[in-house]
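User: I'm preparing a small set of examples for a lab meeting where we compare how different chains pack in three dimensions. I only have the primary sequence for this one, and I'd like the structure in token form so I can line it up with the others. Please keep the answer compact; I'll paste it straight into my notes.
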Amino acid sequence: MVRPVRRIEVALAVALTVLAGALRFRHLESIPYGLWFDEAVIGLQAREALATSRLPLFAHHVSGLLVGLYALSLKILSNDVFGLRAVSALFGTLAVPLAWLVGRRLAGPRAGLLFAALLATSRWHLNFSRIAMTGVDVTFFSLALVYALLRLEETPRARWAVAAGLALGGGLSCYAAFRLIAFGLFALIAARAISAKRLPPWRPVLVTAGTALLVLAPVLVFAAREPATYFGRLSEVSLLEARQEPDLGKALVSNVRYHLGMFHVEGDWNGRHNVPGEPMLGRIAGALLLAGLVLGGRRRVVPAVVLLGAGLLAGILTADWEAPQALRSIGALAPALFLAALGLDALAARLPLAGIPKGSRSGPTGPPGIPKGFQSSCAAIVLLVSGTLEVRTYFTRQVRIPEVFEKFSTAESAVGREMREARGLVGFVTSPLVAPGESARFLAGDLAEADLLDPGAFPVSGPRDRPVKVYLDGSERAERERLFAVYPNARLFAYSAPAAEPGDPPFLYRADLSPRDLASPREAPGGFRARYFASGRFEGSPAVERVEPFLDRRVHAVPFERPYAVEWSGLFTRPEVGEGAFCLAARGHATLHVDGQGLVSARTPGDPACAPFAFDGKPHRLVVRFVDDDRYSRIHAWWIPPGGRRTVLAAPGVVPPAD
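Assistant: Understood. Below is the structure token output for the 659-residue chain.
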């Protein structure tokens, strides 16, 4: 029997909900600072829906239901990052009172409040509540579905059947991980029906199913029309298709081991999901989870474990190189925290009796002299410590460390924010590594226009009647040196993560060029003569011929349709004498010739090819040929001096040949 709700309990539940909202909406527009690609794509789709008054059935792995929610939030709250992320923050906040309602019905009022408090301060849940991506909705809809089914079991009324259908349809319309949670729930219902030898009433079942189908109808229509698009993402990440381990059985066992260990040993390594590698649960919540498994009682623990396994299964069945995957396994979060709440509730119930002789115990509340509410006070202290550690970890460490800070398209986001602030008064030129894409488009709006900088393409070709900002990735050292060779008076600014260590490279550089700088560039010495052939063969006259300063590039801006060919030639002159090597790595087919002799050939970027070379301090003619015939193409050429380190083949050690 469910206990009546007391005012103090309602007040505490409301306070926990307010706390959850404060944690999820606080500085939502700037923490995390960058706007990840997936967030920007859904934001642009929502803006398009507002502009055209047309809602897509399904777009970029997201249903029309979610697109509509994002569009509504952008219109009502603000047409910026805050309005975009507010949808996830609201899902995360509303899951907390649902946790209280579910917990009190399954395990009593105190367990319900403990469950809500653990969820409100969970770093795992907090992280995904502050990103405009589908995922955190799984927790909301799964708790809503469980609560509606519990009420439906008590009172088979139409309103609870409709509520269950809305939760089921909404969950199935959103993140795919919810499907396994729904499967786990209905497996439990079926097992209970078989045990009782009685089928559930048919009318509530029909109402629930019919309501769910109505909500899910747009997604079903899209799936029927474009099955390849709808199911494409699932096939891309499925363990059957995407794995490093050739043996499926071994890959599955490995995924199971990693996902079972994600709560206490090693969590997700993706900085957008977690402090890389740290357990997904804090130490206190992790210990309480184990206590709940032992002390929670079979009637409560078994269903929670079934749902925990269903939630983990969504991560287990996906690509092994991502294991453990906190986003796809997010369905396991609520069952894990419910078990932790059971553990804390059970420990608190035993705490007053510890060390007291049986003969002196006076009833279930403990011996005389122990204040009423002692158990709950001890549980509250544990929650306070656990929640404080989790919240401090997220806001003071997780979002600030470079491995996390730079994972949210941060360099591109910085460019987009500055474009919006400049409002067309400044020209922008960007390296391909930070080229404005969806993130910058959303942040800058209609102002997201910039010239794309080819490697070594200085002087810049942007406007000359106004200042120009040139953005380079933090790794583009050669480009930065060449920029200052051409524009010695440029002002350089470095962008670093808030918690970057001294000596850590910045994630972005910005060089400010005045109209005077742009009017009188210097000629940069050295480099390779680059000859581009649009045909993909080294025949005839080149379509483009220019000098490029180095051979270390990822091809983000394709000059011609693939396949095309490039030949770089230069005179290599260095004073070092002794045994060293020339090396090459590429995606695409690349060869390196020295003085007319083929020396190195490479095609796989993760498997560089090196050949020894006796440096004699004399000039040597280098020719590198590259056929770009694959996506994500790249080429890296370097030399290793006698007794030295890897050094990119670049000016001034290389100059164009005279002929």
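A couple of notes for your slides: The first helix runs from residue 7 to 25. The CA atoms of residues 102 and 412 lie 42 Å apart.

User: Perfect, thanks.
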